[in-house]
Design a protein that fits this description.
The chain is built from twelve helices and eleven strands. By secondary structure, it is α/β, with parallel strands linked by helices. The strands form three sheets. A seven-stranded mixed sheet has the order 3-9-8-7-6-4-5, sandwiched between helices. The protein binds pyridoxal-5'-phosphate (PLP).
Length: 376
Amino acid sequence: MIPGLTAAHASALDAIDPLAGLAAQFHHPRDGGGGRSIYLCGHSLGLQPKSTVEYVDQELADWQRLAVLGHHAARRPWISYHEQASASLADLAGAGASEVVAMNSLTVNLHLMMVSFFRPSGRRNRVLIEKSAFPSDRYAIVSQLKYHGLNAAEHLIEVEPRAGEEYLRTEDLLARIELEGRRLALVLLPGVQYLTGQSLDLSPLIGAARRAGASIGLDLAHAIGNTPLRLHDWSADFAVWCSYKYLNAGPGAIGGCFVHERHATSFDLPRFAGWWGHDQASRFHMGPEFTPMAGAQGWQISNPSVMSAAPLLASLEIFRRADIRRLREKSVSLTGFLQRLIEALLPGVVEIVTPSAPDERGCQLSLRIARPAGGR
Ligand SMILES: Cc1ncc(COP(=O)(O)O)c(C=O)c1O
């Protein structure tokens, strides 16, 4: 056995792990023998917290008991239900509570953000993304280009890793942003790249996009709840995420959105409006004119789906107790342990695609499995 990689060593680490009890707070699928399976798909769909059922049951019970009165009298009043996620989401995003909002789903939020922050004008009409961007992001961007009478061939810049390399170099992205300069209307980057698990060095990239005069947005589907974020300080214009991966809020759960404080009262920005983005004090006056709320909430359209937000509240309560910084420490240690095991036990069979430096990745390891000789 390889020193430091034994089951005994792993158990010794578990014994001093302050977060060791957390795993028992989630339902784990069973393996073929009825035992608890080792679940490595949290980047796709997170496990269900055991407390989720109580949160959902509470809303079903309040709906039975109170019907419409539940908007105000439910244990967690529905009228402001989404706001109960704000403090924890703000902590995970590294933002102020008024800069985040739980709403819709990721691609819908991306469209809504582009309505406000992709404003091509004259020669400033290009969007820069990475070549392997998640397809839904690319579809959304290409459809927005078409909506503005533009086309992907001319107006979509896709930056890819150098030939023979797996992931993007910060200096290449910086150079391309600088080169495009005044032609750039929007830069959209991932926090953690979904295929390779690479965590981008966002601060300088956001700075470069802003110096070029472009809007800068982030897709944090694989970053939120995975790596600590500092969205306010990094100063991106907007960010969008889903909650069914690392946030454990269940399939199709309510997503989230960040809008930087500097846009909190930019009421002249074009936006697609709906009553839930209307000033709360006068929302129920039912007047004909739209008066947006300040902050990220001003981009809401419809009243929030309580049934898809309830599991998010259950999960965020666990994140609050665990603390993302402590989770990250454990994640670095666990991911490093798995990396060392793979390198020691499966050389030449399994190749790790993800960067090996902990600060260049989250908790995902993307693996390439070699074909057996003569195999297909
Ligand atoms: C990186 C990334 N972006 C966007 C999406 C699309 O999310 P949604 O279906 O919530 O719009 C996903 C979904 O897995 C994703 O992984």
